TrEMBL record:
UniProt family annotation: Belongs to the cytochrome P450 family.
UniProt keyword Iron, yes or no: yes
PANTHER family (alphabetical): CYTOCHROME P450 508A4-RELATED (PTHR24300)
Membrane-crossing residue ranges in chain numbering: none
Coiled-coil residues: none
Official protein name in the record: Cytochrome P450 2L1
Record InterPro entries: Cyt_P450, Cyt_P450_E_grp-I, Cyt_P450_sf, Cytochrome_P450_fam2
Molecular-function GO term, any one: heme binding
Keywords: Iron, Metal-binding, Monooxygenase, Oxidoreductase
Species annotation: Armadillidium nasatum
Length: 140
């Protein structure tokens, strides 16, 4: 748990800093949002998250274009199953490609571009159920 939890978060942090250097206009928007949302006389807390929609969208976009885990863990089915006409036999190892999903033009317009706005709804909220966004893989 320590290795799964430390390398993932520190790499995400480093990639985020890299993208903020690469796109100074995005960096400025994050900075302005943080300045506006967080009082200077206390430390930030998770309760402040809702005020940081753009910042969260930037982190999601970093996780989309650069998923720390390109693949999920090995999974297997406990019975034969059929998906879109393909048979996946019992006990076959299934390894979902997060990277392919995050670059699939069926889900993402212009997938190669870094666009945090794609995670913000038309009424300015964070789109938390975006189909095709699987940085933490698929679960069971
Ligand atoms: C940006 C942060 C993180 C990302 C992108 C990430 C991504 C992932 C992915 C893709 C998997 C594979 C899931 C699967 O295929 O079923 C996974 C598994 C796992 N992650 Fe993370 N993770 C992150 C942070 C963390 C943290 C903070 C912890 C613990 C404190 C953690 C602990 C674990 C563990 C224990 C597993 C294995 C779960 C299992 O055996 O079913 N991860 N993570």
């Amino acid at each position: 748990m320590f290795s799964a939890g430390s390398e993932t978060t520190s790499s995400t942090f480093r990639w985020t800093i890299l993208y903020l250097i690469k796109y100074p206009e995005i960096q400025k928007k994050v900075h302005d949002e943080i300045d506006k949302a967080l009082p200077r006389d206390r430390l930030p807390s998770l309760l402040d998250k809702d005020q940081l929609v753009y910042t969260q969208a930037v982190i999601n976009e970093v996780l989309r274009v650069n998923p720390i885990a390109m693949f999920g863990l090995y999974h297997a089915f406990d019975k034969d199953i059929e998906i879109n006409g393909n048979c996946i036999p019992k006990d076959a190892i299934v390894l979902p490609s997060i990277l392919l999903c995050h670059n699939d033009p069926d889900y993402w317009e212009d997938p190669k571009s870094f666009k945090p706005e794609r995670f913000i709804t038309s009424d300015g909220k964070l789109d938390i159920n975006k189909e095709g966004f699987l940085p933490f893989s698929l679960g069971k």
